[in-house]
Amino acid sequence: MRRRDLAHLSDEALVALVSRSDESALAELYDRVGGIAYGLAYRILRDESLAEDAVQEAFLGLWRSAGSFIPERAKASTWILTLVHRRAVDLVRREQRRRTEPIENAPEPSEGSAEEAAWLRLERERVQAALAELPDQQREAIELAYYGGYSQAELAERLGQPLGTIKSRMFAGLARLRELLDDIDGTGAERTSWTFTS
Amino acid sequence: MDVHELTAGYALDALDPAERAHYEEHLSSCERCREELQGFWKVSSALAHAAGGPMPPASLRGRILEQARSERSNVIPLRRSRFAVPALSSLAAAAAVAAIGLGLWATSLSRDLDRAESERAVLGDPNARTFESANREARLVVTPSGDAALVVRTLPPAPAGKDYEIWIFEDGVARRAGLFERPGVTLLTRRIEPGQTVAVTLEADGGVDAPTGATLFTAASA
Asked: Mutating which of B35, B41, B55, B59 best tests the A interface, going by the most A Cβ atoms within 10 A?
């Protein structure tokens, strides 16, 4: 294991190594993002086995296609989480097993350092605070879509609203969240440094 | 509705498959939407961090790494084989690009994840045989079970209103075997058997029942 050597690399540099079939870089990325990825997949799917499938498929997709990542467009962690989310949503729609209530008593992350656990808790609080600022209807549309896996058309039917109304709520809600999260941005600037090793 | 306004739904994965494809096509030509999407993706990433689910079982990490390792061992012999020259693996990679890039705007992410999976199964099969077209611009990769992928290296994109159509010929009878629009990897929709010939013609959008266009290239799976 060369984990110690990789610890100082950015996520994006790790993706560059993964594109060269570096397994230890894949392992390091999993250690950084896998917990959040699984938590997300589980929240959507509410099934351990399906959540594992979603995470596994996303990381193997990364393994196969890391060379296509364009670091100017997004952070590597965003890319991975987008893959996981897309997979989980596709699975939940196929399985017809939607659950929308928040997970009660979500356990605190037990792996990783205390600093990471603390950072994740702060991040969660930051996002929940921003969500709480939204008008109820916008928050509802975003939560049902992102955590529930509902499509816009399904939401329109479920909420008894015209499709255009749902689309407007999502757009307005996301735009507002973007402002709110920028205002209270604890994560700092995008990482732009690249480290190539052979 | 204005296609620009689908950006939020796209960032939340709240579009249905047809809308998703429509929007991704739009993205390839709309700088404004690409910029907006980058901002919305930051928000959805923040939502991901706040999902609050449990930690994964410890076994998941090992399973992912093991699977990754086994895939790599499948790929290497293909790259080194005499016929499946680097063009093949780079085309396969180009197809997989579609699978995941946030950078790839023109194709559907999840559809391509599925497709890339099938393509990988064919292109990564160490027992697959590769046949080169007469003009050397295309290769046909056929697994022992007859699953086949056509890998086209050089071909202009199909003109508007046209598609390239793949045919399997046997005893003078042509059967439809798939459509594509541009160079890359296309899975054949039928299995191929020894002695059959694969050909490609340019046909009307959506394909036709029997080939009408000139044969662009052929490969025999003798």
From this structure: B55
